[in-house]
Each structure stands twice: as C-alpha cells, then as structure tokens.
C-alpha cells in the first residue's frame, strides 16, 4: 500500500483540495479522500492528475526523427515521399535495435506524463520479409521493452497484406510487415504469449488491420475475431490519395465504407480521420468508436486537420497518440489539436465549453478516449481503476497561484512537460523528480544504437 497526498487533485467530482489517495498492492486505486491533512509517510505532491494512455505509436520510427526534413527529387514533398524514406531506414533495424528504441521512446512517454502505450505494431519480419524463427519475435521485443520501462502496454499486432486496394504485392521495405491471414493468426497468438510472459495484469492484446488499402474486406471481417474482447485499431482517411484510392476501388469513401460494412462500436479506434466530410464526422461520433488523433505527426506529414469542433460537439470520443514519435510531448499534442482548430476557424478556445476550459476538455478527453483505445481500466482518480497517475510541480514558476482548470490551461498552453514530476503506471512509480528510474541506462543503450545507425539512408 502506498499513500499519496496532493494539495489539489482532479477527481471525478471535480477539483478538490487536500486529497489523499491509496494505491493498493495490486496497482489499483484503493481509496480517494478529499479535504484531509497529510499523514506521516505520505508521498506529498503538488497537483495530482489521472495519466492518459498514448493511443497510437510506431516505436521504431523514433530513431529516424529529424532525418526526413530535406526535400527530395520530387517537386512536392509529401506523406508518400516520407514513407519511402521510412521503408529504407527500417531495413537497418535488428530485433535488439527495435527493443532499445522502444524502451527509449517508452521512457520518453512516461516522462511526458503518459502512463501507458498502445503500440500499433507492424514491423514483424527480417529485412527482405523472411520470418524470424519465432513469428512474434518483434512483438516480444516490444513487451521486453515494457518490462524494462514499466509502461502499461496494449499490444496491437498489425495485419498488412497488400500494397494497395488493387492487391498489388508489398514493395521493398513493406515486406517486413506482410502476412497472409493464416500466418498472422499464428503471429497474433505468439504476441499473446509474449504479453503473458510479461506477467502484468494490466497488459492488453488487441488487433489492428492496417488500413483499407492494406487488407481486403474478407480479411477485415476475419481479423476482428482474433481478439474478441480486445480493442481494434485501424488507420482511416489520413490522406487525400488514400481516400481517392479506396473510393475508386470499393465504391465509397473510407469512413463511409467502414461504417456501412463493419460492426464499428466502442471497441474500435480509428486513427487520424483527417479527411472526412461533415456527415462522416457526425456518423463517426455516433458510432461510439474513438478517433485516435496524432496532431504532431499529422502536422509533420501534412495530413490535414481533424474536424474536432464538429466531432466533440456531437459527443465524439478522442484519444491522443504520438504516431511517428517525431517528438514525445503530451502537452504539445493537446495544444496542437486545439491550435489547429483555431487556425482553421480563426477562433480562440475552440474546444472549450461554457462549463470547462480548453485544457480541461483536452485532458479529460484524452483520458476517456485513451482508456477506451487501450481497453484499460483507467482515466480517473477512482477506486478500482488502475493507478495511472501523474503529478505536476505546483512550485514551478508557471503554476504559482494557479488552481483548478487554470492548472491544465497553463501546463498545456503556457508551459510544457517539464512540469511533470512523478508518474505511476498501474501503481508502478516509474518517474520521480521528472526522470525515469532507469533513465541513464536506457539512454546509454539508445545512444550506442544511434551512433551505429546510418543517417544517409
């Protein structure tokens, strides 16, 4: 049993002062009491918040951050030119490399205030596409990284069959992703064994058909059954060219086709959805699915702007992810989401409501959507939920004199994640005084890898 006491905390009933929270031995919140004095031995904190799950990550891409900002021979750089560079880069990576990259980016996520991660994992095979002796070797490396960092893990093995809607073969680079349905089922089973070996009650296994370009309708229906209780994630309507290809091949735009042909419900998280019509946005909100938004990556790749004002106005649920991991910054992801709405609409405080500030809407939205996306019992300071917690430094100069929603607004819009002092993941105290418990060792291994990798790919 661990006792925390915070001068202020965001509870399901709203902001409260003098909050004492007990973490039970199994890593769940045992009790929460407000308006009390600290007791001897309590871990004293400034501001205590629930910590969200990072809903969308491709861990290996962290190692290529900063290497794709030069214009190539194409007259207009785009997502598609970036993707070709990514394919060339990943051919350098061994299973050991992927584990070290994953550990480093998981550490960064924890230090930024995330307590858990949903890993959209499609790097399955050796360069050239040959299988490892263990089909789930790479999935096991993601789980091994989580064992080192303590992050909560929802593992989402990805089915990737084709290079496009015409079922063309995978291109060089893509062949490290590819599986037919039978081989993928065996890989998915192996990923489940890797999570079992991790030995944590808060781990979850889901499934991820990559996109409507990369799987056929029959396989999409079959792959849902591989994780009958787990979450289902899919890239959807990210790029204009993708929308046009799906519409030409399948007779409807991606969001329209999926909602009409799959049993989309709260188990689903649909990633990006930056290319939607107003009608599709409203239908997506009504489906109960989560929109998995990655504002920094979507900005980097020029994907477009998610129709957030309309979607939240219709009661839609969203989660936040770091996707390409070009920068791990929880507060910046939330800020960029709101700023994109302001820029498009020439407005301010675009996502605020009459009752809640912008920061409160963003933070609580990321909590609720992240819990759904990860099938994780978290997202609030409530007894019975996993103790996924973050503490902000109330003595930081930016937070002096701040209370209530102004704390969240200041963290997200005026400061940054250096305000994050402590993080717990399912009761595991992984970040203290702003640093991960194994920061030096994890960073040293990642640094050695970066010195070896080629940057002129």
For the record, the CATH class of the largest domain is: Alpha Beta
Tell me, rounded to a whole number, the average pLDDT. 95
Question: What characterizes the major β-sheet?
Answer: 8 strands, mixed
End-to-end span in angstroms? 50 Å
Classify the helix fraction into a percent range. Answer: 25-40%
Shape: globular
Our count of domains comes out at 2
CATH topology descriptor of the largest domain: TIM Barrel
Output the radius of gyration: 21 Å
Q: How does the helix and strand content classify structurally?
A: alpha/beta
Helix tally? 14
**Please, what is the oligomeric state?**
single chain
**Full CATH superfamily name of the largest domain:** Metal-dependent hydrolases
Give unreliable regions as ranges.
none
**Residues in β-strands, percent:** 15-25%
Give a verbal description of the structure.
The protein is an alpha/beta fold. It has 2 domains: 103 residues, Urease, subunit C, domain 1 (Roll), CATH 2.30.40.10; 323 residues, TIM Barrel (Alpha-Beta Barrel). An 8-stranded mixed beta sheet has the order 3-2-1-4-14-15-16-17, with helices on one face. Strands 5, 6, 7, 8 and 9 form a 5-stranded parallel beta sheet that branches. Strands 10-11-12-13 form a 4-stranded parallel beta sheet. Helix 3 packs parallel to helix 4. The longest helix has 18 residues. The radius of gyration is 21 Å and the shape is globular. The model has no long low-confidence stretch (mean pLDDT 95).
